[in-house]
Amino acid sequence: MAARGNQPRVPEAGEKDEPTVAQSTGAETPENADWVSRYADDVIAESERRAPGKPVVVASGLSPSGPIHLGNLREVMTPHLVADEIRRRGYTVRHLISWDDYDRYRKVPAGVPGTDESWAEHIGKPLTSVPAPAGSEYPNWAEHFKAAMVQALADLGVEFDGISQTEQYQAGTYREQILHAMKHRGDIDAILDQYRTKKDPAKKQQKPLDEAELEAAEGSGAASEDDGSGGAGGYYPYKPFCGQCGKDLTTVTSYDDETTELSYTCTLDGFTETVRLSEFNRGKLVWKVDWPMRWAYEGVIFEPSGVDHSSPGSSFQVGGQIVDQIFGGKQPIGPMYAFVGISGMAKMSSSKGGVPTPGDALQIMEPQLLRWLYARRRPNQSFKIAFDQEIQRLYDEWDKLSAKVADGTALPADAAAYSRAVGVAGRELPRTPRPLPYRTLASVADVTAGDEEQTQRILSELDPANPVTDLDTVRPRLDKAEAWITKYVPAESRTIVRTEPDTEALAALDEQGRESIRLLLEGLDDHWSLDGLTHHVYGVPKVQAGFPADATAKELPAEIKVAQRSFFALLYHLLVGRDTGPRLPTLLLAVGADRVRKLLGA
């Protein structure tokens, strides 16, 4: 696949000035650091060439064949961000999401509640003809999995026009295109035949690092779907669903261009039928013809493609020829997007239903953070979404960026990604009024086990000069942190505060240990705030060594850091029975001054 350079390529003599498709954005430089703006430039220019005066059309495709995971979200977020930038410039944009719910049901996904091996009997049927998991409120399999994604997209601020391919095909919307494809089946077969013997050349692949990436790499399965060849009666780009079993295990045996009579046989049950394709709506074009047909029908200008659609002979490459030579349209411009991995998958229970979905991510992080993760990386850059301790570092990074944007010191590309994360054209997404550090909220949620009264007490003491008086001011971030602690922090990593002092450990303390505890307790009340306790716990070992509590690192010998680590480990052991835990200032506030004194032997 051609790589996109930093500057537009000037066509040579005799060449058409047309954009290269499936481009990557190349290396960032100061003049093109914001990939979203650069694609918006390209898309606006291309739309004005192809369809001047009409709305700009960008597209995504999702197959609700199971839980729609975070890798699939890149299929939506890439055109969404570009469409949003174009809207900000005053243009009318349609972001189409094609629900490929007329695709065949290929397999029973592992770990989906309410399903068992009996669902395998529906393999080969359209997704909208497969029963929803037991207990679902939705009428079929496709609607069940679409619903969760629709809710997540609403929370993320993604505006789109959804198109059900079941509805399109069953309403006869594509009848003219189907008849046209059947009439030109020989030409389509010749295009496909150019690639049937080609193998993907040996090249360095991105190595999938975890289960999420492996599932993302597998894609919807459409990339490897039957292209319509192999039938004894010749090549046909149309696949009927059997009138008896409802599955697509059919072979077209004949077709008459004049009468549009089509005959097929089901290889599963032997059922045969002759229908008039000019009236028949129980079937669809094979994927490698269906996708380019829709590009032409919808006038799509921009659509990204995943790695499963980008190898030689794949849907995207073949589609470029088919849309041009068969349907008289043009292939969209757009990048190939890379894997989205998951940090913390190894510790996530398989009972959660496999790789996490956007809805799962939005339980533990605010929409702005999730949008930012997609906006700050070019589509051809892989990245990971954190479900482990890394989420705390990501939130720290986000809060630092927020502060830089507020004071005007953020780099232009970082400020652009921030702007795209916090809102869409014309509105900002709802945000936490008082965004306390995520790691602080997580520590409080860990120690209190979600007890609202205790949470309120601790948060009110973080900053006595500006106490939290209403938990709603720290929501929804507080709720996200509580959900992360509850759902994704393993039980063995949770913090359980001792109920009684460890008398043996206290009795065994040497003189230095007893003195450090005395100094801590002596200054507890005077430093009872997050900042105060931070200064105090770091200051105790300094004072013990004969230095001022506010001495800087440059003024101190290296041994002080060792002494601080030993002091912290002692406090953790006496308070929670482990050598580590939440940040000590937060832990002390969470435990409360009276209980700290009791556990430390005062």
Automatic annotation (TrEMBL):
Keyword Transcription in record: no
EC main group: ligase
Catalytic reaction equation(s): tRNA(Lys) + L-lysine + ATP = L-lysyl-tRNA(Lys) + AMP + diphosphate
Signal sequence residues: none
SUPFAM superfamilies associated with the record: An anticodon-binding domain of class I aminoacyl-tRNA synthetases, Nucleotidylyl transferase
Pfam families assigned to the protein according to its UniProt record, in alphabetical order: tRNA-synt_1f
Region (Disordered): 1-37, 199-229
Keyword list, A-Z: Aminoacyl-tRNA synthetase, ATP-binding, Cytoplasm, Ligase, Nucleotide-binding, Protein biosynthesis
The enzyme's E.C. designation: 6.1.1.6
Entry GO MF terms: lysine-tRNA ligase activity
Motif ('KMSKS' region): 347-351
Classification via NCBIfam families: lysS_arch (TIGR00467)
Protein's name according to its UniProt entry: Lysine--tRNA ligase
Organism: Streptomyces endophyticus
